[in-house]
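Re: beginner question about structure tokens

> Can someone show what the tokenized structure looks like for a real chain? I only ever see the sequence side.

Sure, here's an example I had lying around. Input first:
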Amino acid sequence: MIDDGESRRVRKGQGVLIFPHTSFLGESISNRALASVHHFVLDAQRSKETSSSLDRFLGKRRGFEFLDSEGDRRIDRDLERSIRLGDDQSDELNHESQTCLLRLVLLQLQVERAPISSSSRKTQIKLHRLLSWLAENISASIAVRDMAATVSISESHLRRLFRAEYGTGPARYFQEMKMREARRLLRESAEPIKAISSRLGFDDLPHFYRSFKNYTEMAPAEYRDRYSPIG
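And the corresponding structure tokens:
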């Protein structure tokens, strides 16, 4: 979740550039997920001397931007080198080297891979309205055509928007919403697993068990035993 409370999935090869004064909370959806957080500061004057291409990043205090490296190992290596420099004892040469690497990474992401462009304000409003509607109807089985009709856009366009904004399709996103709610209920309530399954609109308990285990790599009862303070 980033700042506005909405959940966004970061897929493999993708990163999120989060600007200062923006709150965020990360959560892994499986035991195999690997990620790292790298805090850094770029000198605005030196960056502007190097390239005006970084202007849109400079001075931003709130918000975020998804950036996609498409698995480019050069970018990964530059980031790893920058992290190591940041961990080393700080001196002027290390700081200058780290700054150069970070500027290079940002430029590569813009020029070679191009950031995922933000949707228009109108589209963002439609997507937020749709997500609110899905949350209100989390117990229902909702087809993508029904989602598209709710916000008056085509199915194909809705699929493209979800891929760009959330890294997954609308049906998968809705399934993940159900699984996040299932996890919350298992942690925070003593409600029977069968009742949780029914509340989230699953046809039968085995279907819920399969979906939950695919999502968390744990059975519902195992998840509750591990994470619920209720016991």
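Each token stands for a local structural state, so reading them left to right follows the chain. Residues 47-51, 112-118 have pLDDT under 50 and may be disordered.
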